[in-house]
């Protein structure tokens, strides 16, 4: 399988709750900004060309990618990450910078770009990290227009966030987006599922961590295309989240180009969990 190539954003600087007043005063998000990720000029230097050729020479024949596709401008896409305060910012930070921050300040809003190559296709992703607090329910939808994939996150060790994924986050994005836009459900903090201290704390409230099977069932219920688990702290499953989102975007775009087929029977609606 072709390697994943990531372009790290060097100016990562999320807006946190301490900057909220200035943020709202300056009205930093406009609808026009929300409609389009940052532009990035596409240039290929001789050094990049040499690197591509050298990389291809080291690949097995079955994994070689057409060099022309490497030189072509990447496809542009937009991913929006939503959910309670469950480690969304660290999920992005670990993917972009390979850096996990303990006690990450609450993010009000942040956005940036990254380049990723999946299955031979180069994609420039504009990502949007949204606030999970109720105070920003009116502000958050400004980031939704023209989204290609929604990544809905909950914490495996915070059952309330799991319920909110179904009762708040999926309904909210479906209200503002086309029904066929892919949704990926992600359980964060996988590393804490068997932590004795966390298990003891959950037991006090007669709760327990969310099981993998419950996440799968939830994904099916809300119409997500897949369910994934990750640990940003251990960098476990993080890359898989963004690879899955990229493949979902590419698949959705390919479907829009394909000839329309006759509609089949509509599946039964899922029952409340």
TrEMBL record:
Composition-biased stretches, type Basic and acidic residues, lie in 21-44
> A Gene Ontology MF term for this entry?
GTP binding
Q: Which SMART domains match?
A: RAB (SM00175), RAS (SM00173), RHO (SM00174)
Alphabetical UniProt keywords: GTP-binding, Nucleotide-binding
Q: Name one Pfam family in it.
A: Ras
- Chain intervals for the UniProt region annotation (Disordered): 18-44, 253-273
Q: What domain of life does the UniProt record list for this protein's source?
A: Eukaryota
Name the residue ranges with Basic residues bias.
254-264
Any GO BP annotation: hemocyte migration
The entry assigns this protein to a family as follows:
Belongs to the small GTPase superfamily. Rho family.
Q: What is this protein called?
A: Uncharacterized protein
């Amino acid at each position: 399988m072709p390697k994943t190539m990531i372009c790290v954003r060097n100016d990562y600087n999320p807006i946190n709750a301490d900057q909220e007043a200035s943020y709202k005063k300056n009205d930093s998000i406009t609808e026009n900004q929300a409609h389009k990720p940052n532009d990035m000029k596409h240039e290929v230097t001789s050094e990049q060309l040499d690197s591509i050729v050298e990389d291809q020479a080291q690949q097995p024949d079955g994994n070689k990618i057409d060099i022309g596709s490497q030189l072509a401008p990447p496809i542009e896409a937009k991913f929006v990450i939503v959910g309670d305060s469950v480690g969304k910012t660290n999920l992005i930070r670990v993917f972009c910078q390979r850096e996990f921050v303990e006690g990450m300040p609450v993010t009000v809003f942040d956005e940036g770009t990254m380049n990723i190559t999946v299955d031979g296709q180069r994609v420039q992703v504009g990502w949007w990290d949204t606030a999970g607090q109720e105070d920003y329910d009116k502000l958050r939808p400004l980031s939704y227009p023209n989204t290609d994939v929604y990544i809905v996150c909950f914490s495996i060790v915070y059952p309330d966030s799991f319920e909110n994924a179904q009762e708040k986050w999926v309904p909210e994005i479906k209200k503002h987006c086309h029904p066929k836009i892919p949704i990926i459900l992600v359980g964060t903090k996988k590393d804490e599922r068997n932590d004795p201290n966390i298990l003891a704390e959950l037991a006090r409230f007669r709760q327990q961590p969310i099981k993998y099977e419950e996440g799968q069932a939830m994904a099916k219920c809300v119409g997500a295309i897949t369910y994934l688990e990750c640990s940003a702290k251990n960098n476990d499953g993080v890359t898989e989240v963004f690879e899955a989102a990229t493949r979902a975007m590419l698949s959705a775009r390919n479907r829009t180009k394909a000839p329309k087929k006759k509609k089949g029977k509509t599946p039964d609606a899922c029952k409340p969990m």
